[in-house]
Amino acid sequence: MRWKVGLLTASDLGSRGEREDTSAQVIRELVEEELQGDIIEYRIVPDERDEIMAALIEMIDYYKVDLVLTTGGIGMGLRDVTPEATLKVVDRLAPGFAEAMRAAMMQRSGYGMMSRGVAGIRERTLVLNLPGTPKGVLESLAAVMEQLPAALNQLKGRAGEPEE
């Protein structure tokens, strides 16, 4: 079975066509090759809370994706609002994923502690906020990739509790 994945980029420049979305390309490759998933919906929106929320809700409620990966908008800049939009949309948090991604980034650079990305669940869909750089995406997904199938299976009711 292949996972259905939504990919959402939050970028003012990208939404205006002024920047190539290289992080999304990295995510697409990792999803297809390592997760055995398919990107069934991909969007670039400006760093606007309402637009990010609307895109997340549509991907989850209409397209019924198993996983949404966001890229961009998780730093400390005034326009970085992806975590706030995600928190408005999810029903429950999955903090271990965000903690693991932040820890992986901090091993390379102290800048990792400025990542405000969150992870959460809406219905049966997992949402992960990733950095807006290809290197940050690689590090973050590498930190959680091994556990993603188990988490997605649990959300779909296909697995029991993880072994301790």
Describe this structure in words.
- The chain starts with a strand and ends in a 9-residue tail after the last helix.
- The protein is globular, with a radius of gyration of 14 Å.
- A six-stranded mixed beta sheet has the order 2-1-3-6-5-4, sandwiched between helices.
- The protein has helices at 12-15, 22-35, 49-62, 82-89, 95-108, 134-144, 148-155, and strands at 3-10, 37-45, 67-71, 92-93, 119-122, 125-130.
- It is of the alpha/beta class.
- Strand 5 and strand 6 form a beta hairpin.
- The longest helix is centred in the N-terminal third of the chain and has 14 residues, at 22-35.
- The protein has one domain: Molybdenum Cofactor Biosythetic Enzyme, Chain A (3-Layer(aba) Sandwich), CATH 3.40.980.
- Helix 2 runs parallel beside helix 6 and helix 3 crosses helix 4 (82-89).
Structure characteristics:
single chain; 164 residues; alpha/beta; Molybdenum Cofactor Biosythetic Enzyme, Chain A; 6 strands; globular
Topology summary:
Elements: E1 3-10, H1 12-15, H2 22-35, E2 37-45, H3 49-62, E3 67-71, H4 82-89, E4 92-93, H5 95-108, E5 119-122, E6 125-130, H6 134-144, H7 148-155
Parallel strand pairs: 1-2, 1-3, 3-6
Antiparallel strand pairs: 4-5, 5-6
Helix pairs in contact: 2-6, 3-4, 5-6
